[in-house]
Design goal:
Layout (H helix, E strand, L loop, with lengths): L26 E7 L5 H9 L3 E5 L6 E8 L4 E6 L11 H12 L4 E7 L3 H14 L3 E6 L1 H6 L2 E3 L1 H8 L3 E3 L5 H16 L13 H18 L12 H14 L11 H9 L3 H11 L7 H16 L4 H23 E3 L6 H10 L5 H44 L4 H39 L2 H14 L6 H10 L1 H7 L6 H10 L9 H13 L5 H31 L21 H36 L1 E2 L2 E2 H15 L4 H9 L7 H9 L11 H10 L4 H12 L5 H11 L3 H28 L1
Parallel strand pairs: 1-4, 1-5, 5-6, 6-8
Antiparallel strand pairs: 2-3, 3-4, 7-9, 10-11
Helix pairs in contact: 3-12, 5-12, 7-8, 7-9, 7-11, 8-11, 14-15, 14-21, 15-22, 16-17, 17-18, 18-28, 19-21, 19-29, 20-21, 20-26, 20-27, 23-24, 24-25, 27-29, 28-29
Length: 746
Amino acid sequence: MGLTNTSVGMGAVDSGLEIRKQAPTDKVVAIAGNPNVGKSTLFNNLTGMNQHTGNWPGKTVSNAQGWCKTGRHGYVLVDIPGTYSLMAHSAEEEVARNFICFGKSDAVVVVCDATCLERNLNLVLQTMEISDRVLVCVNLLDEAKRKHISIDLNALSDELGVPVAGTVARKKKSLDRMMDQLDDLVDRETALTPFKVEYDPLIEQAIHIAEPAIRAALCGKIPDGTAADAGEAAVGEMAEAAAISPCCDSPAALSPRWLALKLLDYDKSLMDELKSYLGFDILEDPAVSAGVEAARDYLKAGGLRPEQLKDKIVSGLVKAAEAVSRKAVHFQKEGYNDGDRRLDKVLTSKWAGYPIMLALLALVFWITITGANYPSALLSDLLFQVQDRLLDVFHYIGAPEWLTGMLVLGIYRVLAWVVSVMLPPMAIFFPMFTLLEDSGYLPRIAYNLDKPFKCCHACGKQALTMCMGFGCNAAGIVGCRIIDSPRERLIAMVTNNFVPCNGRFPTLIAIISMFFVGVAGGAGNTLLSSLLLTLLILFGILMTFAVSKALSMTVLKGVPSSFTLELPPYRRPQIGKVIVRSIFDRTLFVLGRAIVVAAPAGLLIWIMANVYVGNLSLLAHCSAFLDPFARLMGLDGVILMAFILGLPANEIVIPIIIMAYMAQGSLLEFDSLTQLKELLVANGWTWVTAVCTMLFSLMHWPCSTTLLTIRKETGGWKWVIASFLIPTLCGIALCMLVAGVAGRLA
């Protein structure tokens, strides 16, 4: 779901990639592969806790590298972003391509899914065009066996011309065998002869025309002063020179054949990286320029237009992958994936797909609400008992009251509230959501929502970033990196806040329980709370569609882009690993982020509640100033001030409201929702106030961490301001509408 300790907020700062070897002799190995092939599982099991994270140079794309050791070598493993192709269209694909091409790795391990090997071979073949130091790792052999798919690894190795290892990434023994083959590969003194993709004869001849000059240029064989208009004669001379002295020690160690193909199918981002890596622009070399131009003229004369070239290249790769797969993969049962397809017909159908999505969402909320109440109460009791002991310690040492108030009743009490309110629901919500992710259901959600987003001129991948926002809006912003189009990426960022994060759930659930369900508890009431919460979130999703449409028709005009979305096979989630990963990688990380921003907020709240001007505190003065405007929204000054002070962490909105109503100098907590409702009603709350408070909680400015993350992702303040104002103005307008209609009906 996009959460790491470097993925949001300040962690999104580009720190560059620094290879961290533990010894000078360590080998650098790139771990590549399609998404959903078990690449991360393999990487994590090999490296254990010996991992470092950062960002790729010039990109806000996270990298991970780890260290492991065999009997012969130490290895720095670099986990490349999952990609289907090295024909880069997104930041992740550019990173994968650039590291394989220019990362100076000693080998590349390409991880493949044994259940859909043919599709994965596309990336394998592209990688082998760049490097001959390739090890193909056919993973998920256990799933292939379950689906009655057998793979002849020896035949596959013979066809590809590179070593092939079969693994089940969860099992250490299979990884040990793979590492033995990796040792053999990096120790190999003679070059391998990988399978060469045969393209259309026109393309092959064009490569033959351009390649010799490129080979000579990489080896520094071209004499100075060659005329720019040397033409085919000069190309022929270069070909002869290259044939006499083949390039085997080029400084770039790049394949001249691959580079010829890339120069014909021009990609500006690749050319920029190539220029930076070589230290010169290879197309400024007269002979290379002449050779490439002659090759393009040949293609044109043969009737192959530039816009058709990429399609022909892709077609050649697909045909080659099919041919290799046919010789190595055998299906004992042709309908091995019929069960998945039958399930897809239900989960992705027009009539059943959407109700099932909403039902699962309601189920997740119901389990979260039901399961979080008791541990939240226990944790609250424990933390506030610690607070009492801290007060005793401060009084014992004779600390001034103002210091005791600031540190214990201010900072600590806010932190205790945030932890007790956030931790239990997150500890339930994140594992539940991760189970859906691991089972393969989340891509089906993106598939279902692709059409609505297309109608809004947005990207279907926005559905995945929206799902990430349920846990943390900052993570949803980071997840927008998967969207290729900059325009659509901005739409996803600006509208992500319409999905409530984990920090807003406590406010929404408490208000629903007090004013619309009842505070008696019980399975029936919690189920009704879940349904109402689901309807509220559905409204937030509809607002996402509406605002996305408005942006795409105004400041962010454009045509929706197409994208390839893999529907991975359904898998049985590893429940134990899901729970551990969710707790440590997601729950504790989000909680830690909330604590960091809540501590200074607690100090500010205490100061505002305890510094008096006249007979009123600063908090009361500010609330009174905001009250006339807040009344127009169906709120009051206290509620609006609580939302403003809740900018660092949405979890503290309700405690601030309680504190202001009771004119206390520190946050308070009630033993039951019944007591809290009595306080709110005594201060003028009605069902209209409750509805408007929920709507404004759903639609107001993002938290400070999310805003900071937007700043890091976009590189400026323009879209931070837009992301702040758009949901806020929508929330203000909607609350005014509801309050106005309710006032007329009263």
